TrEMBL record:
Keywords: Monooxygenase, Oxidoreductase
Name recorded for this polypeptide: Methylsterol monooxygenase 1-1
Domain of life assignment: Eukaryota
Oxidoreductase found in the keyword field: yes
Length: 303
């Protein structure tokens, strides 16, 4: 709850007129408790888990040529299978994720996530989000590797790997213990560099949207993430699921630098090299014989 009763009091306290965004924030949050504002995360996560994966399913209905961008085109889940995945995610959401959000507010108070004025600048928000992504990516890498040891996989992580050809709804599909374990990296960034509640909301939502995009099963050439340096993306993470439980490759959650530094992308890079050579060989053969071939890496992989 803001410590100001009027906009004039707020402007006097911060020494300048409120911006349009700050006026909007004041009108919305002035009489609401910090705990109530924090609990908005539950609503945001519900919307992200429900709507972001739905985008890909709707795209399948309205865009007939989308199949050519599917990473594993020979595997197609039925509507009932996708619905069952969503229902399982919602069950985990209401039994684990939601209650965890409700109970974890003291930790948010402890690290100093603020709700007051002034609002952070766009530059501050972007800088903090970059820090959060880097910290989460590094710590998630090692926890993900731990979950691929014999005990971790058999007891916990195998649930997430039930989908060897992942879909958007399967991004948060996991054992309850994995939800708790991998929640730690997401919290570390805000704990190290605490910011405003708005930044925290954006961080939670963007991290889940990124995970859903990574698990979408589609590798779109026009995706904005193609222009992010060292970003893994759907095709990169799909290999991890494609190999399955024995996979010791591509552990990265967002970026690829940890896999490169620690040598856990060698299998992936070797396969990519072979597929590119095969692709070029088929093209060359087609040209020599007067024909033309349109062959993609994902097609070769699926065969």
């Amino acid at each position: 709850m803001l410590p100001y009763k009027t906009i004039q009091e707020a402007e006097t306290a911060i020494g300048r007129p409120l911006t349009a965004a700050e006026t909007l924030w004041f009108n919305y949050s002035a009489t609401k408790s910090d705990y109530f504002l924090y609990c908005h995360n539950i609503l945001f996560l519900f919307l992200v888990f429900s709507l972001a994966p739905l985008f890909y399913h709707l795209l399948e209905l309205v865009y007939s040529k989308i199949h050519r961008f599917k990473i594993q085109p020979k595997i197609k889940l039925s509507f009932s299978q996708s619905l069952n995945c969503y229902l399982a995610v919602m069950r985990m959401f209401f039994l684990v994720v939601g209650p965890l959000q409700l109970l974890s507010y003291p930790s948010i108070q402890l690290i100093g996530i603020r709700t007051n004025l002034p609002l952070p600048s766009m530059g501050e928000i972007v800088a903090q989000l970059v820090v959060y992504f880097v910290i989460e990516d590094y710590t998630n890498y090692w926890m993900h590797r731990f979950l691929h040891c014999k005990w971790g996989f058999e007891k916990i992580h195998r649930v997430h790997h039930e989908y060897t050809a992942p879909i958007g709804f399967a991004a948060p599909y996991a054992h309850w213990a994995e939800v708790l374990i991998l929640g730690i990296p997401s919290f570390l960034g805000p704990a190290i560099a605490p910011g405003h509640m708005i930044t925290f909301w954006l961080w939670i939502a963007l991290r889940q949207i990124e995970a859903i995009e990574t698990h979408s099963g589609y590798d779109f050439p026009w995706a904005p993430t193609k222009y992010i340096p060292f970003y893994g993306g759907a095709e990169y993470h799909d290999y991890h699921h494609y190999v399955g439980g024995q996979s010791q490759s591509n552990f990265a959650s967002v970026f690829t630098y940890c896999d490169y530094i620690y040598g856990t992308d060698k299998g992936y890079r070797y396969q990519k090299k072979l597929l590119n050579q095969l692709k070029e060989g088929v093209k060359s053969s087609g040209l020599q014989n007067g024909g033309s071939y349109s062959i993609s890496t994902v097609d070769l992989k699926s065969d």
